[in-house]
């Protein structure tokens, strides 16, 4: 609820509504379709869509598709899926490319008003002229061109007369500005590349700051939320909005009206917040793309990837990601978040929701010698220890069980309270067994032969008898063989981006980040539908794999262990 969230952005929005500055608010989430969304985007999505929802406003999904060389319809489709999966929906689906006609008219207006000029300097010369943080830049020799000449050249740029990179349209602001973004930044460049939406219609493409600020103004965005690295761009954002003044120049919106889009033009306000940095992770799209294209992971939805597709396949719930973001809060302070917090969020979400199941990941046989071979019983187990509403299920039981190899030691370390020769342990929901004999195949223990103390069965006279350990098991005669994919963190070091020692993130992939084993699950677990999540008691939270799981051939991914094994 909005009342509980009180970060500085929500405070601004609340004030703007209270003062009547805005009758309703409008936000947008503006991904560039040049890669899949990742955990960092989840923070922006929850903020952009969340603020709109909490304050009764709306949020647009806008593809910032102004760089045709890197963009792909595959990403456009996946991004829509991901936003919906996270639990949000947009008022309008827009593309910056919907506004190319408006941007161009705005550029002509800036030229006519003497606020922009066509520059013939090469990219390298522009860099030289720009100056540095400590040195002012120098004016381009083309800065004094007349309005007529600029207009003629801009129209010929638009008509495709010049080669890529031959000219740019630049804002005429201040080459001595302390803010380098204001040193006559480029507004348009020549790039003869086909665009996924507009085809070959445009040989020129708008630059980010120009397109982004005007897109916000066109859509009537009231609060344009973006990450801190754009703080220094805000003066340019405001410059574009003010100098073009779409609200005061409705004729510039002609191309929108032709496309049947309403005139919503208004003056937006950009507000910056800190990015998410997560240790043990990388979030650069370029690096994520390299992991996939170089085969270091199994595609975009590899369950170790921090893409929303990867997190989904790993078993993270949308609610757990929203909870994680909620706990991060919103501020202007950049900091690194511990990956353990993401794992804690999914544990906290699933603890209440996930039914409990029995599964054995590394099986060793346990035979109860005082039950005969034909013995069979159906036990009733509750699905959740704290929530009777989640019901009960049948769990088959016989004289032959699988238990986890971890729960047995031939020579137990001090303080070990589970099975070892001569020791007793409680089998969950059954009673106390004693290990009388072990069977070996060479060095390897292959079977534990035990007796069950019948008086300790539920309801029996010795049911309350204390032993220190309780272990889980599955009935070997009914359990279903399952492929169990034990995932862990993709990177073995906290800062995989740190290449100061000559190693790169590719050298830091955790070799134990995926271990595939064959285990056994109780029948109720095998019946899961793809994407059903459950707790394998004492082992961790697991999900039936979204793509590969079937009832006949179960496949489970470990979402997270029950406890943080990485905490120092
Ligand atoms: P890259 O530079 O790797 O391409 P980007 O930040 O440019 O990433 P976009 O697709 O443009 O990616 O991002 C869309 C929105 O998501 C932007 O508003 C951006 O600020 C936000 N965003 C991206 N990464 C993060 C992050 N790590 N934390 C918070 N917000 C983020
Ligand atoms: Mg980018
Ligand atoms: Mg971007």
UniProtKB/TrEMBL annotation:
A motif ('HIGH' region) lies at residues 31-41. It catalyses: tRNA(Gln) + L-glutamine + ATP = L-glutaminyl-tRNA(Gln) + AMP + diphosphate. ATP binds at residues 32-34, 38-44, 227, 275-276. It is found in: Cytoplasm. PROSITE patterns: AA_TRNA_LIGASE_I. GO terms for biological process: glutaminyl-tRNA aminoacylation; glutamyl-tRNA aminoacylation. Keywords: Aminoacyl-tRNA synthetase, ATP-binding, Cytoplasm, Ligase, Nucleotide-binding, Protein biosynthesis. One of its GO terms (cellular component) is cytosol. Signal peptide: none annotated. The keyword Cytoplasm applies. GO terms for molecular function: ATP binding; glutamine-tRNA ligase activity. The keyword Phosphoprotein does not apply. Its EC number is 6.1.1.18. Residues 25-247, 265-351 form the Glutamyl/glutaminyl-tRNA synthetase class Ib catalytic domain. It comes from the Bacteria. SUPFAM superfamilies: Nucleotidylyl transferase, Ribosomal protein L25-like. Its main location: cytoplasm. A motif ('KMSKS' region) lies at residues 282-286. L-glutamine binds at residues 64, 208. Residues 354-453 form the Glutamyl/glutaminyl-tRNA synthetase class Ib anti-codon binding domain. PANTHER family: GLUTAMATE--TRNA LIGASE, GLUTAMINE-TRNA LIGASE. Belongs to the class-I aminoacyl-tRNA synthetase family. Monomer. This is Glutamine--tRNA ligase. It comes from Chiayiivirga flava. The gene is glnS.
């Amino acid at each position: 609820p909005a009342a509980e969230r009180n970060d500085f952005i929500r405070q601004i929005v609340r004030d703007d509504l209270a003062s009547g500055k805005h009758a309703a608010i409008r936000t947008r989430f503006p991904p560039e379709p040049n890669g899949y969304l990742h955990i960092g985007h989840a923070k922006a999505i929850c903020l952009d869509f969340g603020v709109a929802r909490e304050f009764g406003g709306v949020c647009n999904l806008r593809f910032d598709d102004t760089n045709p060389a890197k963009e792909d319809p595959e990403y456009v489709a996946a991004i829509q899926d991901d936003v919906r999966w996270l639990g949000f929906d947009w008022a309008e689906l827009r593309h910056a490319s919907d506004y190319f006609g408006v941007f161009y008219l705005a550029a002509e207006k800036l030229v006519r008003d003497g606020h922009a000029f066509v520059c013939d300097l090469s990219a390298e010369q522009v860099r030289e002229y720009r100056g540095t943080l400590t040195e002012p830049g120098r004016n381009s020799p083309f800065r004094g061109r007349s309005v007529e000449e600029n207009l003629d050249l801009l129209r010929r740029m638009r008509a495709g007369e010049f080669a890529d990179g031959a000219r740019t349209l630049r804002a005429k602001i201040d080459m001595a500005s302390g803010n380098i973004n204001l040193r006559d930044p480029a507004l348009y460049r020549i790039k003869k590349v086909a665009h996924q939406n507009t085809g070959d219609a445009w040989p020129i493409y708008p630059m980010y700051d120009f397109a982004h600020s005007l897109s916000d103004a066109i859509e009537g965005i009231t609060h344009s939320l973006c990450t801190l690295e754009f703080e220094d761009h805000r003066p340019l954002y405001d410059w574009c909005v003010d100098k073009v003044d779409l609200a005061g120049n409705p004729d510039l919106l002609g191309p929108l009206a032709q496309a049947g889009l309403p005139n919503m033009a208004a003056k937006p306000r950009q507000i910056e917040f800190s990015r998410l940095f997560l240790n043990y992770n990388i979030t650069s799209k370029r690096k994520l793309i390299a992991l996939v294209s170089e085969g270091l992971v199994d595609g975009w939805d590899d369950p170790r990837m921090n893409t929303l597709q990867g997190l989904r396949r790993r078993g993270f719930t949308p609610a757990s990601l929203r909870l994680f973001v909620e706990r991060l809060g919103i501020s202007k302070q950049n900091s690194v978040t511990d990956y353990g917090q993401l794992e804690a969020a999914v544990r906290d979400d699933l603890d209440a929701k996930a039914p409990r199941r029995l599964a054995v990941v590394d099986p060793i046989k346990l035979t109860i010698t005082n039950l005969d071979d034909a013995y069979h019983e159906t036990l009733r187990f509750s699905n959740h220890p704290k929530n009777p509403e989640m019901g009960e299920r049948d769990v088959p039981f016989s004289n032959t069980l699988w238990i986890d190899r971890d729960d047995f030691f031939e020579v137990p370390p001090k303080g070990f309270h589970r099975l070892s020769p001569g020791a007793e342990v409680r089998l969950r929901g059954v009673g106390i067994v004693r290990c009388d004999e072990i069977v070996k195949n060479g060095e390897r223990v292959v079977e534990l032969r035990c007796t069950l103390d019948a008086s300790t069965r539920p309801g029996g006279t010795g049911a309350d008898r204390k032993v220190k350990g309780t272990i889980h098991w599955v009935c070997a005669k009914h359990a279903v063989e399952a492929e169990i994919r034990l995932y862990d963190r993709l990177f073995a070091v906290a800062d995989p981006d740190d290449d100061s020692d000559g190693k790169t993130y590719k050298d830091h992939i955790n070799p134990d980040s995926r271990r595939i084993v064959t285990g056994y699950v109780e029948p109720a677990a095998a019946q899961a539908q793809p994407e059903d999540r459950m707790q394998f008691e004492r082992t961790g939270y697991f999900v039936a794999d979204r793509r590969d799981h079937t009832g006949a051939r179960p496949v489970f991914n470990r979402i997270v262990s029950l406890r943080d094994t990485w905490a120092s």
